[in-house]
Amino acid sequence: MIFTLIKKELLRVFTDKKLIFSIFILPPLMMFIIYGFMGFMISKQVDDVKSHVSTIIVKNAPEEFKQLIPKNLDTAVFTFVDSNVTIEDYKDQILNKELDLFVEFEDNFVDKVINYQTNSIPQVKTYYNDTEDYSNSARSIFIDGFLTPFEDMFIKARFSSMDDLIAFNIDADNPESIIHNEKKAGGQFLGMLLPMIIIVFLFSAIMGITVDAVAGEKERGTMATLLLAPVSRINLALGKIFGLLIVSVLSALAMLAGCISAFPIFMKSVSSAAGEESADLSGLVNIQLQVTDWLMLLVLLISMAILFVSIVCLLSVISKNIKEASTLITPMYLLIMVAAYANMFGSGEPSAVSYLIPVYNQGLSIKLIFEGSLTPTNFLITVGITVAIALVLIATIAKCFKNEKIMLNS
To answer: Of the candidates 270, 305, 259, which has an alpha carbon nearest to the alpha carbon of residue 29?
Structure first.
């Protein structure tokens, strides 16, 4: 009878084109679209900032500084003003994005720099809008491209060599300075995002199919017909759960495939926008999962699917209809999201207690798999805790199936 119920649940899903699309096609497709769109928008934003011609107004600019600015400069347009103007005249323009940067040199700037031993050190003031990319970029262009070379010119005049200003070098000829874990460096970014996406989307998919399969059947009255069949209520409960579990695991694997296939596109867009010399992603995302890693990931997905199916199934069993089940599941969904997002932050080595927290331990373990630092002990603890909680919930579901008042909404 268990296999009959499993077959019934699978036929319900695989004979419904809408369910097939929403469970197996839509999630990976959405991941592909989301990552592709994120990469496109990041690339577009960076390209837009790079192509923008900054507008910069400079007050009291020394003639020596003006000579450093090329005549055919295509990254910025400089306007030089005298000492009669103030920043107050241009604040509104900066706030309204009509002006990117206002710079003010002190009066007699060059004389003060040359006679630094008797005068106070002069100052260059910059005014910009730190909430605007164009304004931030203009300040960086001005300081790195013009102000720093201008300062170097005076320093070279003071000393016979720039080396006189350097007491010692740091890693000047030490190409082996950075010692890192190649596997962790490759999978760190993916390990931060992927667990959250898997957990949230997996729970969403399970919530959709499980609520209809349990609370929906109670609402339509078909559950009562099943209960009248000459079969153990425990077998009825297990048949329902195993059928839903198979569908949920397949959905999770589909989402995982979608994320992994879309991620290189996202990284390629980002690296291209950032001006990487090569579009090869091996230096950015060097995912090196072994067979054992994939097996651990598969076991984690299965154990997580068991837990989620058990949670949603129990809440659906004690509900009278789909609306009531959805109301009960919403707070649980929020808790799941909090646990999933929590793994995106934090530093240092996770404590032993972290592997005892349901759902959070799953996201943490998936993250550590991609970083190559999940130990067998912590893996077993995570799976053991997850399965143990799921078994308790399944036993509770089986007990509920024996309760006529709960199952018949009486």
So the answer is: 259
What are 208-225's pLDDT values in tens digits?
888 888 888 888 888 877
Give the mean model confidence (pLDDT) for residues 389-405.
89
Collect all residues with Cβ–Cβ distance below 8 Å to 5 and sequence separation of at least 6. Answer: 235, 236, 238, 239, 240, 242, 243
Domain 51-164 classification at class level: alpha beta
Token representation of residue 347: 């530093």
Nearest partner of 306 among 167, 196, 203, 398, judged by Cα = 203
Question: Which helix or strand (DSSP H or E) is residue 80 part of?
Answer: strand 76-81
The answer to whether the CB of 195 falls within 8 A of the CB of 363 is yes
SS3 string, 10-62, reads: HHHHHCCHHHHHHHHHHHHHHHHHHHHHHHHHHHHHHHHHHHCCEEEEEECCC
Sheet holding 76-81, edge to edge: 76-81, 54-59, 101-105, 124-128
User: What pTM was computed for the model?
Assistant: 0.66
Q: Which residue from 76, 181, 184 is spatially nearest to 138, judged by alpha carbons?
A: 76
Q: What is the rounded average pLDDT of the residues 327-331? A: 91
- Domain ranges for the chain, please list them: 2-40+181-407, 51-164
Structure tokens at 5: 């119920």
Q: Residue 247: what residue type? A: V
